Amino acid sequence: MVDSIAHIASALESAKAITLEAAAIATSKLGESSYTHYSNRINGKQLRTLLNSRNPRDVKDAMKRIITLMSSGDSSIDTSTYFADVVKNITSDDIKIKRLIGVYLLRFAEKEPNLTLLCVNSLQKTSYDTIPETRAFAIRALSDIKIPSLYPMVLHTLKRVVTDPSPLVRSEVSFGIMKLFRSENDEFEEDLVTLIKDLLADTDPLVVSAAIATFNECYSQNLEWLHGHYRRYCKMLKALDPWIQATLINILVQYCKNYLPRPTLNSGSSTIVLPEREDDIPFDAYTISMHPDMSLFLTNVKGLIHHSNPEVIIACYNAFFQLSTSKEIGKSKFIEALVRITQTTTSDSLRAKILQLFLYSSSLYPALFQRHLKSFFLSPVNETVEIQCLKLNIISRLINQDNIKCIIKELKYYIMSFLPYEVITEAAIALSRCGQVSIEWEVTILNWFISLMEDNLLPFEVLESIVNIIRELVQLDPKKHLDVIIKLSNILQAHTPLADNARAGIIWLFGEVTSIEFKICPDLLRKLLANFVFEGPETRLQILLFAAKLLSCDIDRFTENNSGGEEYDLIHSRIAQMFNYVLYLSKADDDYDIRDRARCFGSIFESQKFEIATLLLQAPKPIPSLFIKSGKDNIEQIDVSIDKQIRNGLSIIPWNEDLRLEEDVDVRAEIPLKDYSKFKKSFSSDSYIGKAPIRSSSSEASESNGSEYNEFGDIKGITSPNGTNASVFTSQQGHKYQLQSLDEFFSDIPAKPKHKKKIIIEEEEEYDDEDSSEDETSSEEASDSEEETSTSNGEEEEEEEEEEGESGSNASEESKKVTGDIVTEDNPFI
Amino acid sequence: MLISLYITNIRNELIFQYLPMGSSPTYASIWKKMQLSCPELLLANEMKSRSLGGGSAIMVCKYRSVVNNMNYYCLTSDDSVEVDCFLEYLDELILEYFDKDEVSVKKLVNNFDRLSLLLHSVVNGGEINVGFLYNNRIQNVVPPVHDLRKILNETAHTIMNQSSGAMRSAGSGVAFNASSSSRGEDMVVPWRRNGIKDAKEELYVDLKEEVYVTYRKSDRHHGRDGIRTSNPSMELVSGHIKGTIDVRCYLNGNPTVSLMFDTMGNDLGIPSFHACVEQEDQVQEQKQEQEPESFQGKRLLRFLPPDGKFRLAQYVIDLDGQGGMSRRMDRDGLIQVSFEDGLGLNKDEFEVRLHVRESIAVVDPVEDLVVTLQFSNGNDSNVKMLRATHGTFVGQDEDRQCSWRFDSDEISAGTLPVLRGCIDDSKHVQQKKRSCLTSVAVRYGYPGELASGCRVTRLDVDVASPRVRGKVFKGVRCVTRVPALTVRA
Question: What spans are recorded as compositionally biased (Acidic residues) (chain A) (predicted)?
Fold first, then answer.
């Protein structure tokens, strides 16, 4: 730091010749903020001047200003008016300016098609650049321009660069295909298909990754294209880009479903094919056997268990969900990985989606999730209502005899805490579902709810939903819950300030109970009548309904007991009198609905159509939606709360029933690959162990079919099947060369034994013999000429070197400078 | 398909917008539509994607960055897991790119051009630009800004060149091109730049853990699983520790780093690793038929690190599966909490006690300690403090919460703060309806030690070529945060 400042001080002293403006720009480079300050002062007029300046720095400043204006939403200067000034700078040598223009073109090219054509030529030229990144940029910028007249030219360029030695450029071709495909031009279809097929057969993982993205986007129906690549893709799954692995897994699942036979389950002597639903498996213990290609896929999927991208883990889980049994899902431990993601992710949206996945799966395989129960307990730190409700919903599906105590304790805590009302309601629903485990628990839970109401400890909003839950619980089997019903009638009469619809709910429940426990009802109605006018509208309506139900029930009881044809006394019956009183009050009600209903019921009973009354008022009610149904209904029940994408992922893809297996033909035999790495003119290697095979995962095949590509050059691929010899280069003559970088070469000198030099000289002789060979690379030719001189006194040198090692190594260093990176395996010194 | 992307502050005011298509709407127009069709999405904590309304299939996805205090909005043609993951990753990528722990609005404003280019390279034709999402790959295309020292050096150099008349007319692009010359295709691994020569030779490992644990006071002397617990009044409801291993790497060449991680008996389950961590393929192949192993014991992580900041691993320790209560209690941080309710003559007093454990590794005082007291319903009750040995007491809010706050240098190992208070609830004589203390939650952080006890026992840089590498400066830092340790009544 001190040195740097000293440098500046001395430099500033000697910099008297610099103009004031240049100095201002120089100092502005010292800090981002001061540069921004300088940049913000550039006005519209200056901007045009800077864009037309010959100094690249001015142009860069102007482009930065334009991009800043676009990005900040600042409308003080209309950036689209500078189109011509911006576009002509595409000829600049500075790649950053080009890239900034690329960003500008994305936004405005469509609006100015004629002016955009001006930059096409320059971009075409750039696509011949020596730096792959620059070439890739040119391809991208060209294919991004959405002008129909330009498409044929773009296609031509893509065809030209699809054999580019750089994977960066080839992967850009893949995106170019996607953009042309979107133009929906039928003329190109054939060419695009040829191109994408070539890219799918590429050996480089980067290119394959991009090709799969395009395949998924444009040609996902053509799964048969993957026949020859299936095994290779399975093996190279890990080497592909993390952002394409999920897509590829989903594609391969589709492929397995279409082209591979359904797995079979074996138990003893019986064998069945894997059924669509786990419940349909007739035996408890079984082994699953699947096609070797499917096992290959699932084995490689298992290897992604530690992946950091949640999307990949979800895709892996789906693969097991689609192709295997719950036992295998459990073994694969992807559920553990997903649970970890729900706890670590910072995206609530993602967390909600994984919880939806759990909700769906837990209703199918609750046993798989029961051990993670506590992970679904609500977190004390901020969670959205949606996530809390999803968690509670999942908990309610994991209840069994072993964990019910723990769950009930927890749910009771949530109901009593200061959570949002929706969450408390969901917790109460979950608690009511605990009652499904056994009647004892149901009674305990109901009593707890009643005690809550009696003590009036809950806010109105929650109380209302709890009344609904109690009502639904009791409705299932009212006979068993008579004591609860009596307690409810006490609550109704105890003048506790219950919400209107909570009271209405309880009264409705009594209406339902009339046919079961008639005795308590008339008295309750009598007590309710006294306060009829002070009740809320919903309660008034329910009292009317209650009175009608009671009367209808009383009439039915009377007809049952008196089969002699005696008529029910509608005038003197106490119940009928009470009904008439309610009718009288209701006919003068404020509420339309109550008046309407009152007239309706009144006319039914007046005209003595008691059968209609029975049908209307005592119809059996459906089982409440609160409770978890079994099997398929269960899935339908939760289906509504699940996002479309998660649902699509989980809906079982049907197996291809028409699949015909031809035993002699192996459709998935690997097809010839496109290996362009042989075009490379420079070689470098690295010592990173284990990573070298990434590029070479398929080179076995390419070697076997290699002759096809020999026309492109003399040099075979520098890669090798097992990756151990990744840095070995084989020339056409069959000589092997160890490839090293200059740094490695120099650093390795002392460590190498010297006695091997002899062998080299023999090789050089061989070289001399074959010197007539035409196809030597220039570097090799250079090395040859150097070697010729060295071999002329080779014998002497050898003796000398054995005597005085140091001078020998110096000589070898010199020869290395000429030979570049290529060093013979046997003697790395030359 | 990604249509546009907007970064706003938490008040939803635009900071940055990336509009990669002629038809991409500006934030100003989207803002109006969002207010009309999905106003709830604009709320601070809401992240659920929503349709933009008006019959269009366009979705607005949102990601709230807690670290940077910013919102990311993204218009897409479908609401997919991919978009959620992408937005979360983008936030991390921006931090990695600028090599910061948090990015300020000012930093973004000063770097609009870089940010645009960054997005230009990660989004291609509306799709995620597969293969170009590694920070190092992006740095190849969009070189990052250098730190002040480098800028000073460079500026000095430039001025000297200028003053000596050596400035070339077209020379300004040279620096950019030079850095571009480390060509992407020569990258040994997709996540590391090649040809790094001027790095500082430093390697830092940051271990961070967050503890989330809930206890219930229990009168029983036996835990739920029948094991006699060391603290008979506590029962674990649920708890987990979230851990991350972040690495900052500034090394030359392509070094392989070995990190020996000792889990100290914890079961880390199935952690996630950065793509650079070697996965011992051959070993795994032999065990294909077996279940993946839990991460336990002393494990060696070997990796060829990306240049700069990155997340090496992320794990969760489930405290429920970690053996007996005493073992769990050792893993929930430095502070133990206990409280009593119904004390005093009128049974309306309560007492909260904290115990700060002593630890050799923790030298600095506990940071940002806040104790939150939650009281049950009781409309007219009023909570008063009687006495407190440390800290300040802040009265009740509408959620019936009180807080007891401490200054950062107030609490160190071995202190025993005690708070005594009373609930003034004269109207409810009946015991059942009385307001009472239902839970006490503690929030704090401390450097020096991880709650779980996990640690790095060895950190080596494999020296492939000793001449290239000088002495490497290495460092390991541990930080624990306890966002929520709750004890329920």
Answer: 762-806
Say yes or no: A166 contacts chain B, CB-CB below 8 A. Answer: yes
Looking at per-residue pLDDT, the higher value among A100 and A720 belongs to A100
Would B274 be classed as within a structural domain? yes
CB A651 within 8 A of CB A639: no
The yes/no answer on whether domain A31-242 falls in CATH 1.25.10.10 is yes
Indicate if B278 and B402 belong to the same structural domain: no
CA distance A153 to B112: 33
> Which residues of chain B make contact with A138, given a CB cutoff of 8 A?
none
Write out pLDDT tens, residues B166-214.
444 333 333 333 343 444 446 778 898 887 877 888 899 999 999 999 9
Same domain, B26 and B123: yes
Residue reference for tokens 């009802």: A521
SS (H, E, C) A375-416: HHCCCCCCCCHHHHHHHHHHHHHCCCCCCHHHHHHHHHHHHH
Phi, then psi, of B446 in degrees rounded to 5? -155, 140
Is the same domain home to B317 and B438? no
The yes-or-no verdict on residue A110 having pLDDT over 60 is yes
Identify the three-state secondary structure at position B255: coil
Alpha helices in A667-804 (DSSP H): 693-696, 699-704, 742-748, 757-769, 778-792, 794-803
Residue B20 lies in a domain: yes
Return the CATH number at B412: 2.60.40.1170
How many CB atoms sit inside 10 A of residue A25's CB? 15
What DSSP assignment string belongs to B256-306? EEEEEEE-TT----S-EE-TTB---HHHHHHTTTSPPPP--SEEEEEE-PP
- For the cut 60, the answer to whether the pLDDT of residue A755 exceeds it is no
Cα A776 to Cα A732, A762, A784, B121, B179: the distances in Å are: 9, 19, 10, 38, 32
Residue numbers in B near A110 (CB within 8 A): 22
CA distances to A542, A587, A668 from A597, in Å: 11, 9, 72
- pLDDT at residue number B221: 46
- In a 3-state reduction of DSSP, which class is residue B165? coil
Return the minimum-mean-pLDDT range out of A640-644, B93-97, B185-189, B426-430. B426-430
Q: Are B320 and B458 part of one and the same domain?
A: yes
Tell me the residues of chain A between 714 and 773 that have a Cβ less than 8 Å away from chain B: 743-744, 746-748
Contact at CB, A340 and B315, closer than 8 angstroms: yes
Task: Give the number of domains in chain B.
Answer: 4
Domain ranges for chain A, please list them. 1-30, 31-242, 243-335, 345-436+636-646, 462-626, 680-824
Contact state of B112 with A99 under an 8 Å Cβ cutoff: no
B196 part of a folded domain: no
- If you measure CA to CA, which chain A residue comes closest to B64? A347
DSSP class of B127: E
Q: Which two tokens stand for residue B309?
A: 């900041």
> Is the separation of the CB atoms in B440 and B415 below 8 Å?
no
B155 and B268 together in one domain: no
Taking the Cβ of residue A178 and every Cβ of chain B, the question of whether any pair is shorter than 8 Å is answered with yes
- Domain residues for B305? 202-329+451-488
Longest dimension (CA), chain B: 93
Residues A590 and A586: their CA atoms lie apart, in Å, by: 9
B129, B154: one domain: no
Cα–Cα distance, B175 to A153 (Å, whole number): 33
Range name among A151-155, A445-449, A735-739, B211-215 with the lowest pLDDT average? A735-739
pLDDT tens digits along A569-614: 777 788 888 988 998 999 888 889 999 999 998 888 888 888 888 8
Mutation target vs A (from B103, B159, B160; most A CBs, 10 A cutoff): B159
Domain with B85 in it: what CATH number? 3.30.450.60
Mean pLDDT calculated for residue range A306-323: 93
Whether B223 has a pLDDT exceeding 80, the answer reads no
